[in-house]
Write a structure and sequence with these properties.
By secondary structure, the protein is of the alpha+beta class. The chain has one domain: Aminopeptidase, CATH 3.40.630.30. Helices cover about 35% and strands about 35% of the residues. The chain has 5 helices and 7 strands. The protein has a 7-stranded mixed β-sheet with strand order 1-2-3-4-5-7-6. The model has no long low-confidence stretch (mean pLDDT about 95).
Length: about 170
């Protein structure tokens, strides 16, 4: 892999972010989600959603990891976690996805560090992330970064017939 650049996402990155989301979900979640759901994910549909996200002012910040002019990673964070029972000083890593071709290259680590620096600069004292309980690769990554399971679990309905079990991890910073 070539030189990695981490930067804030721009509206013009919408299709690239959609590509990272769709392709990384299809690679990482195969066996954890039904194939029919993963195979139906559509880059153009996701790009329209990303265009809206990136055009709106929101509590989320979006980042891209670029290698050799290709967006290979996307991360999103919130200065205040979406879990309403948590203190306002708790931030959230809402998403962190890397194309399978870039797994193990260090780009996931680099994009996470950029997000962490942003959260620290905004006064966040703890970060949470929700991970599928079956996603051993992601759990291992976050644990290597110092995250620990805090005992919280939830079930999210992706569709009425697809229930996802997640565990929450936290990191004091």
């Amino acid at each position: 892999m070539g030189v990695t650049t981490i930067r804030r996402a721009a509206v013009g990155d919408a299709t690239a972010l959609a590509r990272v989301r769709v392709l990384s979900w299809q690679a990482a979640y195969r066996g954890m989600m039904p194939d029919r759901y993963l195979d139906a994910l559509d880059i153009d549909e996701n790009a329209a959603r990303f265009t809206r996200f990136l055009s709106e002012h929101s509590a989320h910040s979006h980042w891209v990891g670029v290698v050799d002019d290709e967006v290979v990673a996307w991360a999103s964070a919130c200065v205040t976690a979406r879990d309403t029972e948590l203190d306002a000083s708790v931030g959230e890593l809402a998403a962190c996805y890397v194309l399978e071709s870039a797994w193990g290259s260090g780009v996931g680590f680099k994009i996470w560090k950029a997000v962490l620096a942003e959260l620290v600069s905004q006064g966040v004292s703890q970060v949470i992330v929700w991970v599928l309980t079956q996603n051993i690769r992601a759990l291992s990554f976050y644990e290597r970064q110092g995250f620990v399971k805090d005992g919280q679990r939830k079930t999210t309905a992706l569709t009425p017939d697809i229930q996802l079990e997640q565990v929450r991890l936290c990191l004091d910073i």
